[in-house]
Write a structure and sequence with these properties.
TonB-dependent receptor, 800 residues, 22-stranded antiparallel β-barrel, mainly beta, Immunoglobulin-like, transmembrane, 43 strands, Beta-barrel_TonB, 2 domains
Length: 800
């Protein structure tokens, strides 16, 4: 409690030094819907933009002219409706507590001065162009996750999990699939950061994003051959268009690990002769000490982050260009209790209920640890024609340098045991043709594109994966037809991948090379039916594939961060997936339900299988894993149900069920997420935005995670005086239930609200272990954590 009081004092003292402007308020769930058409012909205006000034967010109308903006709070808003060739219309609305809010159709008036140069900014998520099952974190829901990693933030969404390596490393999991089966787009660029490692978390600063969108299921037609499990879009907020300088400051503090986070942003849009030009700078500093379980601290679990980014954008009516650069730098300590020196120590550590070493709290960060720096440079340009559509090109270069340091140094103390430098160039050429109307009132819209990638990897010191070159290219076409209540979409894609790995014979000092190449054709078909204003039905069927990576094929060494010995299999074949998704969404005045069913059949599914006997090396004894390949299915259900008991009291339930099976061996698969359900009760106090205090709420939550019983049978036997394991090194941990709470409010200073959110996790301080944590063999998960999150707008110059 003393830690919390200290934290509150520090944060509130910080408030007195900050200039205040506009911010989005507490956790809200109101959905705003509407339709945009032309006054001249009363036809829908596909691609028209809807922009909420107070929130600096919006949406783009689909081919039927409809738009949807989730995550709003009650209050008063000014909405800009815009479309090229039509006059902008500004409408003021008042949003109550009921959801959804259906706005009356808006008709835009043609602008006779069509040759006049105007600034056009699209406030749409790239995912809105695709007819696939998707979910998102945005606005106040995203604010409530500030301070967490990308993987931890996304765990709040149904169907999303995370695979962990201790308390500081978390990777997103979609429907049981992760690593190279999930593509992450960082500001429109395919993130390449050695994501094959289970303990290689995405090197992305979540504070960059104003929206995190997750496309569930195979999305390889648009994004590339590896998107068997899905796609994560990290999308920054749109660049400013109103002249002036403004910014934002986020302060986050947490009691567990005494963590402190500061993230700031400053941006400017120019007017008059420089209209259309804008810039933005953003940065984040993060420091976390030893994480505490309910009973002990995890030695060397500290981690640091230093991130920054900058953007320059120029956008006019028919042309636009943007330059973006970001650097993510982190140093992550690895729990020393997972380091063992012999087989006897390894078995004893698994059997031991607590680690032997239990130090007090510290910010110290020593061996073993990993240090990673990821640099990204992107240049994008577009040309828009009312007759032909929009042509855009994006080129980017990334450099990912990973250093992993073992507990003991095998060369100079300053040298890592594992060094990997990956340089990636990508290019995307996309043409969106103009909407084509049919005589029956329907409308065609579509995209044709090319994606290219080239990579080079250099290793040093101990061997895990070889040096390699990798090339890939893909061509795709997606077409959509909308008419009345129906929308149908189909797509086709061709991909080619080429890989050459280089091996050095240390005896002869000769280099040999192994070359593999693959190609495949994939397709997708989907449809959405708007049965009523409240009920939407949708379904998709698609195929996808993934070529084996260099780690799948040629790994052969100790993976320091994973504390595991990994062996590749050079005989692996590409994965082939057949995916089906069905979704039912109902949005009533008091009742909301979203049910999603999925089935993913994967031939040649590649996974790391625990070996029976740990590997003994000079450094010690390590769990051993080998890449294996089977026929597998992943099927399940994602369900979100929300009901308003009263105007102020809402109950929400989110459940994710997943069933995976190995059909080759007629057995279960390892490291598959357990079924879980999250339930919450939220109370919104009756306040209005006319006073200083508004959007006051409090909520309590419970999370139940079942024991994962669908695993290969874990057995052990004595053989030649040695313990032999089969299935895994330890059985899955028991089920557990965690309780949490959240409270928030907005405090209006002048005309602008300030957001304050207080969250608590594992409030009962329960000791538990999670099946998806690679360190579950050695230690418990984190205990109670109280976090205070403040979002402070900054105004440096008045906006016109």
């Amino acid at each position: 409690m003393q830690d919390l009081l200290k934290l509150c004092c520090v944060v509130w003292l910080s408030l007195g030094t900050a200039s205040m402007g506009q911010s989005q308020s507490g956790a809200c769930s109101i959905v705003l819907t509407g339709r945009i058409m032309g006054l001249d012909n009363h036809e829908p205006l596909a691609g028209a933009t809807v922009y909420i000034r107070e929130l600096a967010t919006g949406a783009v109308a689909d081919s039927a002219g409809n738009f949807r903006i989730p995550g709003l709070c009650s209050g008063e808003y000014s909405i800009d409706y815009q479309f090229v060739g039509y006059k902008t219309r500004v409408v003021s609305i008042a949003v109550g507590t009921d959801s959804p809010v259906a706005l009356p159709p808006v008709a835009l008036t043609p602008d006779n001065e069509t040759l006049k140069e105007v600034i056009v900014t699209e406030h749409r998520s790239e995912a809105q162009q695709l007819l696939q099952v998707q979910t998102e974190l945005a606005g106040s829901s995203l604010d409530a996750t500030r301070g967490q990693s990308l993987g931890e933030s996304l765990k709040t969404l149904p169907g999303l999990y995370s695979i962990q390596t201790g308390p500081s490393i978390s990777k997103p999991v979609i429907h049981g699939l992760y690593s190279n089966r999930i593509l992450t787009l960082n500001n429109g660029v395919r993130q390449e950061d050695q994501q094959w490692g289970s303990e290689h978390a995405p090197q992305i600063d979540p504070f960059l994003a104003s929206r995190l969108t997750v496309i569930k299921g195979a999305a390889s037609i648009r994004y590339g051959s590896d998107a068997i499990g899905g796609v994560i879009l990290v999308e920054p907020k749109t660049m400013p268009t109103v002249p002036g300088i403004a910014g934002e400051l986020n302060l986050v503090g947490g009691t567990n690990g005494d963590q402190g986070i500061v993230s700031g942003l400053i941006e400017q849009a120019f007017g008059k002769k420089l209209a259309g030009l804008s810039w933005r700078l953003q940065g984040t500093l993060k420091r976390v000490g030893y994480t505490k379980t309910p009973d002990y601290y995890l030695e060397n679990s500290s981690y640091h982050e230093n991130n920054f980014s900058g953007t320059v954008n120029y956008t006019r009516q028919h042309v636009g260009a943007e330059i973006f650069y970001s650097q993510f730098s982190t140093k992550v300590g690895l729990f020393t209790g997972a380091q063992v020196g012999s087989l006897a120590d390894f078995y004893a550590a698994i059997a031991r209920p607590e680690p032997i070493n239990q130090p007090g709290f510290s910010y110290d960060l020593g061996r073993p640890y990993q240090q990673v720096q990821h640099d990204l440079l992107k240049v994008k340009a577009f040309v828009r024609s009312e007759r032909l559509g929009t042509l855009s090109i994006t080129v980017a270069q990334q450099q990912n340098v990973r250093r992993e340091y073992d507990l003991q140094s095998f060369s100079r103390v300053t040298d890592p045991e594992l060094y990997l430098k990956l340089v990636t160039q990508t290019a995307d050429l996309i043409w969106e043709h103009r909407a084509i109307k049919t005589a029956t009132g329907g409308q065609f819209s579509g995209t044709v594109g090319f994606n290219g990638i080239t990579q080079g990897n250099v290793r040093r010191y101990l061997f895990l994966i070889p040096n390699y070159r990798n090339y890939g290219a893909g061509l795709f076409a997606i077409e959509r037809y909308a008419n009345d209540n129906w929308t149908v979409e189909g797509g086709v894609r061709y991909d080619y991948r080429w890989l050459r790995a280089y091996f050095l014979d240390e005896t002869t000092n000769l280099t040999t090379a192994k070359t593999r190449d693959w190609s495949n054709l994939t397709g997708s078909l989907g449809a959405t039916y708007q049965a009523s204003p409240q009920l939407t039905l949708s379904g998709t069927m698609s195929t996808a594939w993934r070529a084996p990576t260099v780690s799948d094929l040629y790994s052969d060494g100790l993976h320091q961060s994973a504390v595991a010995y990994e062996r590749g299999n050079p005989n692996l074949n590409p994965e082939l997936a057949y995916n089906m998704n069905l979704s039912v969404e109902y949005t009533g005045k008091r009742f909301y339900a979203d049910l999603g069913f999925y089935n993913n059949w994967i031939n040649n599914y590649i996974y790391l299988k625990p070996d029976s006997v740990p590997i003994i090396r000079q450094r010690g004894a390590f769990p051993a894993y080998s890449y294996s390949q089977v026929r597998a299915t992943f099927r399940g259900l994602d369900a979100t149900i929300r009901y308003k008991l009263t105007d102020q009291l809402t109950i929400t339930s989110r459940t994710s069920l997943l069933f995976a099976y190995d059909h080759t061996n007629n057995d279960y698969l390892v490291y598959i997420p357990a079924n879980h359900t999250d339930n919450g009760l939220r109370y919104d106090f009756s306040t209005t935005n006319r006073g200083r205090l508004s959007n006051v709420y409090v909520s309590i939550t419970s999370q139940y995670v079942a024991r994962q019983n669908r695993v290969p049978t874990v057995t052990q036997r004595q053989e030649n005086g040695q313990i032999i394991f089969t299935g895994d090194f330890a059985p899955p941990p028991p089920a557990y239930t965690l309780f949490g709470a959240e409270a928030g409010f907005s405090w209006r200073v002048g005309n602008h609200p300030m957001s304050v959110i207080l969250t608590g996790t594992n409030l009962l301080n329960r000791a538990y272990r999670d099946y998806l944590d690679r360190f579950r063999y050695f230690a418990d998960e984190p205990g109670r954590n109280i976090m205070l999150k403040l979002k402070l707008p900054l105004t440096f110059a008045s906006r016109q």
